[in-house]
Fold this protein.
Amino acid sequence: MKLLSIAVPCYNSAAYMERCIESLLVGGEDVEILIVNDGSSDATAEIADAYEKKYPTIVRALHKENGGHGSAVNTGVANARGLFFKVVDSDDWVKKESYIEILDALHELVAGGQQVDMLLANYVYEKQGEKHKKVVSFRRALPKNEIFTWDEIKHFKKTEYILMHSIIYRTRLLRECNLQLPEHTFYVDNIFAFNPLPYVKKMYYIDTNFYRYYIGREDQSVNEKIMIGRIDQQIKVNKLMVDYFTETKITNRKTYKYMVKYLDIITTVSSIMLIRAKTDEALLKKEELWAYIHEKNPCLFRRLRYGLLGNAINLPGKGGRKCSVAIYKLAQKVMKFN
């Protein structure tokens, strides 16, 4: 059995996927790289097959009909043979030294008979044109280089939340919690980083800048114009997360608190994109989203609506919306997100 399975969802990724795969090959025989070709029409399939032929004990090329990012991740989980599982998007890559450090830590944990549900590391915004890269670390919130539980976690700042980029899950945990991401839907990486959390009991954090999150392609799903154009999918994911939170028994207080924080961020993103759309239809969708949360979970609604972010994005009238956008732009400049 492999130590770590890494799924690389690919859709028409021929122009950049080799940088990603080359960075992952450093893991050697400890790793299996699952290149999931999601119905590409370019040379993605041929590149995947070439890597499998060259590295038959490390790389597996999985070809499927197009189903979107979530479907590709589902395929990766279903085919994974590793004890642990990670997703690396085909336009991103990992840092060699951090990668080796993480594999060494996983080896030690397994050799010592220690079961860890989630390993976390830092991620870096590799934003095109930016000399100073934004690093998201958890060194203030999480114990370093030791196994810990939710009860030992300290306060997360608004700028610190766990994305798919920072996560390595225990593979069996993903199957135990029946994780199934929706198909033909963008922004499902938020579900990947959210739904397994009530099942996560033991964690391990390495303070190393492992994952390099590339931002710069005009067709990226996180591009603001693209997000506004796909706002219905963002809303869909937002609602699915609210549904899951409402229907799932979350017994640990700190797990509950962190998941509320995550929903706060996601609902803020949905709301500000709807304001930025500058249409009456979008504003109605914003009202409908908040009404949906209120109907589904009144307690959650109060936590989100009357918190710092909820107040900032629900200022009344046209002037209030301008103020909300100004706050958003300031945060964008400080945090350097797309």
The two ends are 39 Å apart (CA to CA). The CA atoms of residues 23 and 96 lie 7 Å apart.
